[in-house]
Amino acid sequence: MEERAIITCGGDYFNIEDTLECGQVFRFRPYREGYLVFSADKCAYARETGGGVTVECAANDREYFENYFDLKRDYSAICSAAEASGYPILKTAAEAGKGIRILNQNREEALFSFIISQNNNIPRIKGIIERICRALGERREFFGEEYYTFPRAAIMAEKNAEFYAGLGLGYRAGYIAELAGRIAGTDYFDRLSSLSTAELRKSLMSIKGVGAKVADCAVLFGFHRADSFPADTWIEKVYSEDFHGTPCARDKISERFVKEFGENAGYFQQYLFYYKRSKEKALAAAQTDEKAAGKEN
Are residues 101 and 111 in contact, defined by beta-carbon separation less than 8 angstroms? Predict the structure, then answer.
């Protein structure tokens, strides 16, 4: 039996469900009392235990997953900064989402994943990525459960756009094939890592199929540059309804929040995004229940 490492972390500032379900990552699935989490060619089992979080992984992967879950960062200081920001919505969002951590994802996998994510919903994104892994990744087992690794760009570059279209990528198929060919066998991500956040974002946007939101997501979730603030429909609602911003393009919304929140912008974005989305979905569900009850009466 493979030797395993057990990593424990206090639960005050780490909620595994909120961290995984907040839209920053797509390769995980419910398992027993928690989740199996996949990154690149690795797998871990993460679950809530006794007021904290326990992560089990292969012994050789301990350092990888300690970094992946960002366990050495002081999130209490980040939450304190949110609460002291002067914005009631941010204070409330941080209190509700203080268990969210920004993951240190594999940069290559994150970039491919967020290209796939554009104009897409989470179940479909997860399905497409899983099909790519099954088609091109390596089959492995962890806790007796089968999983497939995320294929390296060199492997992905062997396939053309038609192949990816056959996996359900639609118009994104050409973007994936072109990116794989562009970066296969290069030190592309090491070179990107040496750039400033502004330069990194600009470089990513030179890739076919990468717009502002995809670039911002890759910058934040793939490179952990927290002076980044992805703006989508939910953030637009936050901007207009809670910050009383005047209508403008999403990149301007992003710029405003980065300028105001600096190195905490990415963390605050996750608190605001998750809180707004959760609140609106809960309200919609309650309204649906009320309508159903009315029909029964």
Answer: no
Residue 69 CA, distance from chain mean position: 12
Question: Do 182 and 207 contact (CB within 8 A), yes or no?
Answer: yes
Running along the chain, 297 residues long, what does each successive block of 10 average in pLDDT? 88 94 95 97 95 95 97 96 95 96 97 95 96 98 95 97 97 97 93 96 95 96 97 94 93 96 97 91 63 60
Buried b (16+ CB within 10 A) or exposed e, 200-235: bbebbeebebbebbbbbbbbbbbbbbbbbbbbbebb
pLDDT of residue 80: 97
Question: What is the per-residue pLDDT for 293?
Answer: 54
- Segments in 238-264 forming alpha helices (H): 250-261
Residues 186, 15: Cα–Cα separation, whole Å: 36
Pick from 6, 245, 47: nearest CA to 229: 245
CA–CA separation, 241 and 224 (whole Å): 28
3-class SS of residue 35: strand
Residues 6+ apart with CB under 8 A from 6: 54, 55, 56
CA distance 33 to 40: 23
Straight-line distance from the first to the last Cα atom of the chain, in angstroms, rounded to the nearest whole number: 59
> Tokens representing 63?
């350092």
